[in-house]
């Protein structure tokens, strides 16, 4: 059996990466709209919905600092036992933040 490469790890977890990107984009969009409209109750309800839907699929980190903290932990129960997967999560979260900012800017 051939060894598992970094490409295989990213390919197996592409759905998690897409959910992280969408969640980060929606979280960024929620935050920008909440600060413009001063609707913090709606922001908190939106964050709750994002966390409820994203937790089972990808862990619902939606923040590069949280992903980095999980990546550096030494617990065997942590989802990121592969550093490449953690870096891919951070790249997709950054892309989701950029997409969310552009969506809030244009709408």
How would you describe what is shown here?
- By secondary structure, the protein is mainly α.
- Helices cover 78% and strands 0% of the residues.
- The protein contains 5 helices and no strands.
- It has helices at 6-12, 14-37, 40-58, 64-72, 83-106.
- The N and C termini lie far apart (51 Å).
- The model has no long low-confidence stretch (mean pLDDT 84).
Characteristics:
107 residues, 0% strand, 5 helices, mainly alpha, elongated
Given helix and strand content, the structural type is: mainly alpha
User: What's the total helix number?
Assistant: 5
Calculate the mean pLDDT score and round it.
Answer: 84
* Order of SSEs: HHHHH
Calculate Rg over CA atoms.
Answer: 15 Å
Tell the overall outline: elongated
Write the SSE topology:
Layout: H1 6-12, H2 14-37, H3 40-58, H4 64-72, H5 83-106
Helix pairs in contact: 2-3, 2-5, 4-5
Briefly say what this structure is:
The protein is mainly alpha-helical and 107 residues long. The protein has helices spanning 6-12, 14-37, 40-58, 64-72, 83-106.
């Amino acid at each position: 059996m051939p060894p598992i490469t970094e490409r295989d790890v990213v390919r197996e977890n592409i759905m998690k990466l897409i959910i992280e990107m969408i969640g980060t984009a929606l979280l960024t969009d929620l935050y920008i709209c909440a600060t413009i409209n001063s609707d913090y109750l709606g922001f908190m309800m939106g964050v709750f919905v994002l966390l409820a839907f994203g937790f089972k699929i990808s862990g619902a980190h939606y923040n590069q600092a949280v992903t980095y903290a999980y990546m550096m932990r030494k617990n065997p129960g942590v989802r990121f036992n592969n550093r490449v997967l953690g870096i891919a999560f951070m790249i997709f979260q950054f892309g989701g933040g950029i997409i969310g900012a552009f969506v809030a800017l244009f709408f």
